[in-house]
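Collaborator request log, item 7. Partner lab (contact: R.S.) asked for a structural prediction of Adenylate kinase to inform their binding assays.
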Amino acid sequence: MKIILLGTPGGGKGTQAKLICDYLKIPHISTGDIFRSKVKDGDALALEIEDYTQKGKLVPDYITISLIEDRLKKEDCANGFLLDGFPRNENQAEALDLILNKQNEHIDRVFLIDVPEAAILDRLAGRRVCPKCGESYHIKYNPPKIEGKCDICGTDLVHRSDDQEEIILDRLAIYKETTKPILDFYNEKGILHKIKGDDGINDIFNRIRKILDADG
Ligand SMILES: [Zn+2]
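Returned to partner:
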């Protein structure tokens, strides 16, 4: 099963991604992880990516697309995958189609986790992330075992400066604008599912699971 998971930043998408991947036993492919792992290579491309991400800029499409294409060729993707954070615009969605078409493959399902703005503000204000491994937490909904420390690597968690209200609202507006064409693109193919995402983690996952189970 080849899945794309879309959702407003801070809408609990990462948690659902993990649940879906555990359930279907498919790899979770996020552009954030791909960039972090590429940066460790230390080559020219790594330095370029580091420069973009440190300045808070988007990595250009041609780089992102080629990294995704390489990642999808890996053996663990043979039975499917879940893409998280990609595609983030129409150009990337079209490129992904071309990559898959070359192998006579296609995306099976696209899930949009739909969360109202007020709920997102609440979630992001309480969000804490690990600067070392990228794991994220929420002081109310998903607290670490030891306050302020990452469960996985023990690093001090941080409240990112871009998790502040004004910046969040800006980001949401930009997100809506760039996501609209992607939603239209997959809606026309009949594979887009809007999932109500403003309640508990398990309620949201059950809605997704019903659709996955119906596919057999
Ligand atoms: Zn960590």
